[in-house]
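Module 6 notes. Inverse folding takes a fixed backbone as the condition and produces residue identities as the prediction. Think of it as a translation problem where the source language is geometry and the target language is the twenty amino acids. Below is one complete input and output pair. Work through it position by position during the lab.
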């Protein structure tokens, strides 16, 4: 929630705020439920002990406007971060190959946010469950990468309702 990440250890009878930040996205490491990934608008956190403590990663920008996280059981060491800058425009796609400890910039060349500044509202990413190199992102349009984010191709057209590839612009 905007007041933190909350955890219950008794089936929801009581809750503890384990990360008092404005949390926008949460993912669990595939096959390892004690590893939790969380993102505030501009900080990525990871926990390897079920949320008892959290660390921050290296290699990500020091500022930003919004972050979303992508993981995949195809390679549970991979963690992808799609980051918007303070103006909610494309900042970069980052990948960790060590479960979120450190990241490397994979992509920032073109604007897969369609120069919209709408990442405060529309921002999504998912990674294929069978191919760790296949990523889908979206703000207004949906974009696909088959090489771990080195390049992307557009797969739809939000601005052409008559096109077979049309989808509504707000990708969540």
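Target side of the pair, the amino acids:
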């Amino acid at each position: 929630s905007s007041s933190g990440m909350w955890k219950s250890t008794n089936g929801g009878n009581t809750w503890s705020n384990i990360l008092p930040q404005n949390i926008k996205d949460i993912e669990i490491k595939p096959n390892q439920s004690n590893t939790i990934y969380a993102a505030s608008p501009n900080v990525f956190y990871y926990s390897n002990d079920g949320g008892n403590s959290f660390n921050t990663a290296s290699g990500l920008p020091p500022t930003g406007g919004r972050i979303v996280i992508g993981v995949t059981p195809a390679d549970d060491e991979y963690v992808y971060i799609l980051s918007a800058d303070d103006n909610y425009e494309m900042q970069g796609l980052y990948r960790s190959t060590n479960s979120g400890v450190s990241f490397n910039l994979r992509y920032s060349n073109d604007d897969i946010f369609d120069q919209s500044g709408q990442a405060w509202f529309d921002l999504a990413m998912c990674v294929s469950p069978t191919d760790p190199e296949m990523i889908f992102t979206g703000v207004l349009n949906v974009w696909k990468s088959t090489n771990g984010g080195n390049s992307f191709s557009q797969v739809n057209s939000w601005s052409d309702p008559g096109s077979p590839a049309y989808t509504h612009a707000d990708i969540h």
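Reference fact for the lab report: The radius of gyration is 16 Å.
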